[in-house]
Design brief:
Blueprint: E1 2-5, H1 19-28, H2 42-74, H3 77-91, H4 93-103, H5 118-146, H6 154-182, H7 185-213, H8 218-245, H9 253-262, E2 269-278, E3 281-290, H10 296-313, E4 317-326
Helix pairs in contact: 2-3, 2-4, 2-6, 3-6, 3-7, 4-5, 5-7, 5-8, 6-7, 7-8, 9-10
Transmembrane segments: 54-81, 87-104, 124-144, 156-176, 196-215, 221-242
Protein name: Cation diffusion facilitator family transporter
Domain Cation efflux protein cytoplasmic: 250-326
Length: 338
């Protein structure tokens, strides 16, 4: 069995400009083996996740600061509740930051696969907070339906609610985009959480508009609709996180690995292929058949070529174990290995 780790020390076959020009171009735009997939290393993708979490945290705190200032001017208790909710969301960013940091720690004898699964644990916590948000909105909406409350300082409340909706949506778009790029389900879930908070702020907007139009229960009705939308976001986020905890991968991932490995020169066939997410990176093991007469050194080189092709062409792949079998003794992929 040949066990290979990815790294930045593998050879590049394409040419680069010489001297200082090459160094400047590399610093401004780090290259990859395949510009179509722009695959990042585990360290750089984790760094992108940490950066996204910090930037969005600053954005949320700025939004909350604007809302708090308007709360001080307007004295709106409803707006204060919405602001406190947004501040609570900011706090949930901390477990995500801790998870990204843990993921960078090297494996140990107790945790031989490392700590990247901490991201998925953080994702479960985020999903629970999203569920709590939906439950609170339902409770508030039902209460407002049964006992409509007068809203004061509606102009200020509207301004703060719009600030909350826009700020949270900007954070959501940024987090989801980075999360999908680096393959982090937890960061995508945090983006969905920000989107849920933005929808919560929209409930306040519709409440103000309803008050102006003479429909004091408008915010309650819209709140129930928004709660349903948040529950849909919850299902979408939780489904991905739970699938990863169950070692599931996206459709087509295993087929893609098999196709890439089978196209490497010297590979006669591909047997069992397995893959799973660990945090925002994929680990895989692949059985490939080669000519049984090739020397061990040549077989090792073929295995190295398989790994290089997988790293170059399969997004988010970080680690692969390539197992060689003689072509005439290849185990069938549908027969369990005991």
């Amino acid at each position: 069995m040949t066990d290979h780790h990815t790294g930045d020390g593998h050879e590049h076959e394409h040419e680069h400009p010489d001297g200082a020009v090459r160094r400047v171009l590399h610093a401004l735009k780090p290259h990859s083996h395949d510009s179509a997939t722009a695959i990042e290393s585990a360290e750089s993708s984790a760094g992108a996740g940490v950066r996204a979490a910090w930037i969005s945290l600053i954005g949320m705190m700025a939004t909350a600061a604007v809302q708090l200032a308007i709360v001080a001017i307007s004295g709106s208790l409803g707006l204060l509740a919405d602001t406190v909710h947004n501040l609570g969301h900011a706090i949930t960013t901390i477990p995500l930051l801790v998870a990204f940091r843990l993921g960078l720690r090297p494996p140990t004898s107790r945790f031989p696969y490392g700590y990247r699964r901490a991201e998925d644990v953080a994702g479960i916590l985020i999903a629970l907070v999203i569920a709590l948000s939906a439950a609170l909105i339902v409770a508030e909406s039902v209460g407002a339906l049964l006992d409509p409350r007068a809203m004061t300082n509606t102009g200020w409340v509207l301004a703060a609610a719009l600030a909350g909706a826009v700020g949270n949506e900007l954070v959501a778009v940024y987090r989801i985009r980075v999360g999908r790029r680096i393959g982090s389900a937890a960061l995508v879930a945090e983006g969905q959480h920000a989107r849920a908070d933005g929808l919560t702020s929209l409930v306040v907007v519709f409440g103000v508009v309803g008050t102006w139009l003479g429909f004091p229960r408008a915010d309650a009705v819209v709140g129930l609709v928004v709660a349903a939308a948040i529950l849909w976001l919850l299902v979408t986020s939780a489904r991905t996180i739970v699938r990863r905890l169950m070692d599931g991968v996206d459709d087509g991932t295993v087929d893609s690995i098999a196709t890439v490995a089978g196209a490497v020169p010297g590979v006669r066939g591909v047997g069992r292929v397995r893959a799973r997410w660990t945090g925002h990176r994929i680990e895989a093991d692949v059985e490939v058949s080669v000519d049984g007469a090739v020397p061990v050194r040549d077989g090792h080189l073929i295995a190295a070529d398989v790994l290089a092709a997988l790293v170059r062409q399969v997004p988010h792949l970080h680690h692969a174990v390539v197992h060689l079998e003689p072509a005439d003794g290849m185990a069938r992929p549908d027969v369990p290995v005991t």
